[in-house]
Design brief:
Layout lengths: L1 H17 L18 H13 L26 H11 L4 H24 L5 H12 L2 H10 L2 H22 L3 H17 L1 H21 L5 H18 L1 H9 L23 H5 L22 H16 L7 H18 L4 H6 L13 H14 L10 H23 L18 H8 L32 E7 L3 E8 L3 E8 L4 E5 L2 E2 L3 E3 L2 E6 L2 E9 L3 H29 L1
Antiparallel strand pairs: 1-2, 2-8, 3-7, 4-5, 4-8, 6-7
């Protein structure tokens, strides 16, 4: 009976959150800005099937020349999508399931965090506010920002880990913190960039205000939690930083994505027309940046309640910290924060100041949940419970009614292109996102110029492709005089070449590989191997996971002893 009671509110939250993802169960797909998601899931699954792990390189994107997208574009959501494909789902259905799971996960992680500061019913409200925030719908149905959707889901878990470590330092809570923060990092690196200062500030604030444990022990475990999150996820972020020089990914920091052109006008936070267009300079953007009127109203009430509620008197610093972080996040979306953006060079990679809306909604949802936590101070006995229940029901109904206009796609395609078709991936999808190709790479101007064959046109020897897996190419060569082999493969230092099992040095021109071959019959092998940096990062991650698991096991043994 107790178990059923404990599951009641999480199950209720899941059911109410599921309304947001109902359009995913419609037949077909819908238009989104980043219309590459199905192809990326398909390519991730293909790379895993071909034996690559961790997956960094995909074979068909990049106009058929391939590129290491998952060395730079955070891959967690796509591993989940590939898992669903391995269970027998189509690429489209796996992609929809991946997106829907990320949306549901956001509500649950917020619920578990909010439950630390308020009752079960109020925590459900906080979770629903988080799920049904307008910006969440923008990422879902307008932008198709799958990485941000998943990072959004891990943000509450990261803060929950920090809170648990401050209250009761333990290896189990170190694991919670590490999973939450690492989840943000490997879901969306730019979200991690803007969340990290808030996590560090939260950890510092808790160390200064908590009196339940010795400061030294608490500090050690907080550092362990954050540090292990960085180490566990180093397999991804270390190569992403250290090897970006081999691609053109830096180009995304300027041009149409320059942060100076994408500040939000303050009135847009209150009222912004819903649309499916893009972000532009000024106040006439094609997509909405509204926070949500109900969210703002409940957040203000929650702030007052949180500061005045007697039972939260020991946690008022958390309410104040949340309010301060909310205000700072709002300011970072506005042009008045431009000196901060100008003064920190790495901020140019964030591209859009309105990305801070993820944090605005996070902190506002926490405060909004508190709005219904003070009824017992006004009403007594059973009346208080009934009034609170009525308030919760009213808020949920209003939230769902107000959000219904946002949580739906622009339209559903009657027919949708087959994003598992190599021709579609090589040309149509590749043109949407090609920044992971080498800087010197000459992009094809026409579909005919894209690489539909592994052997390039400049080849002067007889060449037959024996095997063309994602991470290994085997080519049989035959020539009476020797000659040139052009390989339609984009340059990246992870590629190693063997001619008749002996190392072979390749020439690189225009970001592609060329070979001068001797006469006779030969076998050329191209293998995508981990670079020294990638191997080191992988090792650090594995060791960190082992340390974390051993810490939890040894702690349990000490408690039983």
């Amino acid at each position: 009976m107790n178990m059923l009671k404990r599951l009641l509110f999480p199950v209720l939250l899941l059911l109410l959150s599921a309304i947001a993802i109902l359009p995913l169960f419609s037949q077909g797909f819908f238009p989104i800005h980043d219309d590459t998601q199905i192809a990326r899931v398909f390519e991730m699954n293909k790379s895993l099937h071909d034996g690559l792990f961790p997956v960094r390189f995909v074979a068909d994107l990049g106009y058929g020349y391939g590129y290491p997208i998952f060395s730079f574009y955070a891959p967690l959501a796509y591993y989940v999508g590939a898992l669903f494909m391995s269970l027998g789902l189509t690429a489209m259905t796996a992609t929809k399931t991946m997106i829907g799971l990320g949306v549901l996960l956001a509500g649950m992680t917020m619920y578990f965090l909010a439950r630390q500061f308020m009752g079960e019913k109020s925590a459900v409200v906080a979770g629903l506010l988080y799920v049904y925030a307008p910006y969440h719908a923008v990422n879902f149905f307008v932008r198709g920002a799958v990485g941000e959707l998943w990072a959004y889901a891990f943000i509450p878990l990261a803060f929950l880990g920090i809170w648990k470590l401050a209250q009761k330092p333990s290896w189990r809570h170190v694991g919670l913190c590490a999973i939450g923060f690492a989840g943000v990092i490997v879901s969306h690196n730019l979200t991690a960039l803007i969340v990290t200062p808030f996590l560090l500030a939260g950890a510092g604030m808790l160390m200064l205000t908590s009196r339940q444990h010795s400061g030294k022990r608490q500090a050690v475990f907080l550092v362990l939690g954050i540090g292990l999150a960085l180490l566990v996820s180093s397999w991804y972020w270390l190569p992403a930083i250290g090897e970006m020089q081999y691609t053109n990914v830096v180009s995304q920091a300027g041009g149409g994505s320059a942060y100076a052109d994408h500040f939000v006008c303050i009135n847009q936070l209150w009222s912004s027309p819903w649309g499916f267009g893009g972000s532009t300079s000024g106040c006439l953007d094609g997509l909405s940046f509204q926070i949500g009127k109900l969210h703002i109203l409940l957040g203000l009430i929650g702030l007052v309640v949180g500061l005045g509620l007697q039972k939260l008197r020991k946690q008022r610093f958390v309410v104040l910290f949340t309010a301060f972080c909310l205000l700072f996040s709002v300011l970072m979306t506005l042009e008045m924060s431009k000196p901060v953006w100008d003064g920190l060079p790495f901020m140019k990679y964030v591209q859009f100041p309105w990305r801070y809306l993820s944090l605005v909604v996070f902190f506002l949802s926490l405060l909004g949940g508190l709005a219904l936590s003070g009824w017992e101070n006004i009403f007594k006995g059973n009346r208080a419970s009934l009034v609170r229940l009525g308030g919760v029901v009213a808020v949920i109904v209003f939230l769902l009614l107000l959000s219904s206009k946002n949580f739906h796609p622009k339209f559903l395609y009657d027919t949708y292109r087959d994003e598992t078709d190599p021709k579609i991936i090589v040309w149509t999808i590749s043109r949407i996102s090609d920044e992971y190709l080498p800087k010197a790479f000459k992009k094809p101007d026409t579909e005919v110029a894209a690489a539909t064959q592994r052997i390039g046109r400049e080849t002067t020897v007889n060449a037959q492709v024996i095997s063309d897996k994602t991470g290994e190419k085997v080519i049989q060569l035959e020539s009476e005089r020797g000659g040139k082999l052009a390989l339609n493969l984009a340059y990246f230092p992870a590629w190693q070449f063997l001619l008749d099992s002996q190392p072979l040095t390749a020439s690189v021109s225009d970001g592609m590989y060329y070979f001068i071959l001797p006469k006779g019959s030969h076998t050329l092998q191209a293998r995508f191997m981990q670079t020294p940096l990638e191997k080191a990062a992988n090792t650090v991650s594995v060791i960190s996971v082992v340390v974390l698991i051993l810490g939890i096991i040894l702690e349990r043994k000490r408690r039983k002893a």
